[in-house]
Amino acid sequence: MNKESGSTNRITARILLTVVVVAGIVGMIWHQSSGDSDELIVHVGKSMRPAAEALAGEFEKRYEGIEVRLNFGGSSDLLAAIELGQIGDLYMPHDPYAEILDEKGLLDYYEVVGHLEPVIIVPNGNPLEIKTLNDLAARGLKLSARDARYSTSGAMVQEAFAELGLEEEFENNLEMHGACHNDVALAVVDGHVDAGVVWNYIAVLYKDRVDMVIPHDANFDSQRITLCMLTHVQNRDAAEKFIDLATSEFGQKVFEERGYSVR
Question: What is the pLDDT of residue 4?
Fold first, then answer.
């Protein structure tokens, strides 16, 4: 199989996987939704899961009798499922999905609740003294990151190396593409690679097993985390209360403690 054929097959497989995932999400939403006004359905991008689960737990304590149903998936897959199923109250993705939601006429309004930023993770103690992207370009270093074709963070990392004129060195050192940020972190933890590039919340999630390095030579744009009210919201009162919680001092602390940046 030539390189072009392999690439085409991977793209086709990705499209088929997306269709299956979207169909599964829609089916799950329909199955879970009872039409009960005492439930709140929140679609959550996978990268926002730690904060969303904490917010949902606090919300149910404060507003007894209202059950929060969290549907997790890739932000793009969730967007497709929302468009297809027209079910749910809130959607929590990262950039640029709030704008896309608005273009499709599915956004009532949104609030920015946090930010995702790429950071470097290394084994505890940082034995190779990695501090910058330039350090990651050193000959022989083994690196892991998300695939730029399918990941916002992967594309940001690739672009940052290109801006420094280190794209070739980056490709040479890239030992593995993580299927998710957890895969990248575990590759570092298990010693398969010397360093990885992940979202900031992953560095905090694995803080007992890795050290976080903020590469000051990288021109990374942070990705906003938005909490979007859907136009077909069924439980507006509960949805507004959830947004209020997420943007409150308590909610912002939830995001910050779990590694997301807040401003």
Answer: 45
pLDDT given at position 24: 52
pLDDT band at 230 (very low <50, low <70, confident <90, very high): very high
Q: Residue 261: enclosing H or E segment and its boundaries? A: none
- CATH classification number, 118-213, choose in 3.40.190.10, 3.40.1480.10, 3.40.710.10, 3.30.10.10: 3.40.190.10
List the Cα angle 208/211/214 in 5-degree steps. Answer: 140
Domain with CATH 3.40.190.10 in the chain: 3-116+223-257, 118-213
Report the C-alpha gap between 143 and 136 in whole angstroms: 7
- For 31-42, how does the pLDDT look when each residue is reduced to its tens digit (9 = 90+)? 445 555 689 999
d(CA 252, CA 263): 9
In this predicted structure, what is the pLDDT of residue 133? 96
**Residues in contact with 181: Cβ distance below 8 Å, sequence separation at least 6, in sequence order:** 47, 146, 153, 198, 199, 202
Angstrom distance (rounded) from CA 38 to CA 185: 38
User: Whole-angstrom Cα distance, residue 169 to residue 143?
Assistant: 11
Class in CATH terms, 3-116+223-257: alpha beta
CA–CA separation, 96 and 225 (whole Å)? 9
Q: Which residues of 92-112 are buried (b: 16+ CB within 10 A; e: fewer)?
A: bbbbebbebbeeeebbbebee
Tokens of 93: 């993705």
